[in-house]
Amino acid sequence: xxxxxxxxxxxxxRAARKVMKHAHAPYSHFRVGAAxxxxxxxxxxxxxxxxxxxxxxxxxxRTAIFTAVAQSGPRLxxxxxxxxxxxxxxxxPCGACRQVIYEFGPEAMVxxxxxxxxxxxxITELLPEGFRLK
Length: 134
Ligand code: THU
Prior knowledge:
By secondary structure, this protein is an alpha+beta fold. The chain has four helices and five strands; from the N terminus they run αββαβαββα.
């Protein structure tokens, strides 16, 4: 398991907080921001984007990952992801986002708010037996 320097974690949390303000969340009023760092040290961020047709909503984590692929290409190697919300409540990535994180970061660390403060989990703790096509 690769360790992430504290400085990078702070940087990610800050980037996630900043992008959270761009969330489009008129239905849930729950704004989420996510930021990831790649093996090359690039940082990409995303927010949740809701839709009147609720199921079309894109979570912050997937927005950050899809933005990274669009800007930097599909050889994305995610080292860590941080997720924040504007209500300061526990919020770990949903199941769909776990699978998308796993696609590009099978060794990624994930930082999110738990019931007793910040949590740091390896993606395989959050998603055991993640799906792969090989
Ligand atoms: N949401 C995220 O963006 N990320 C998460 O990890 C959990 C949920 C969003 C989706 C929806 O816009 C709102 O939070 C309420 O579910």
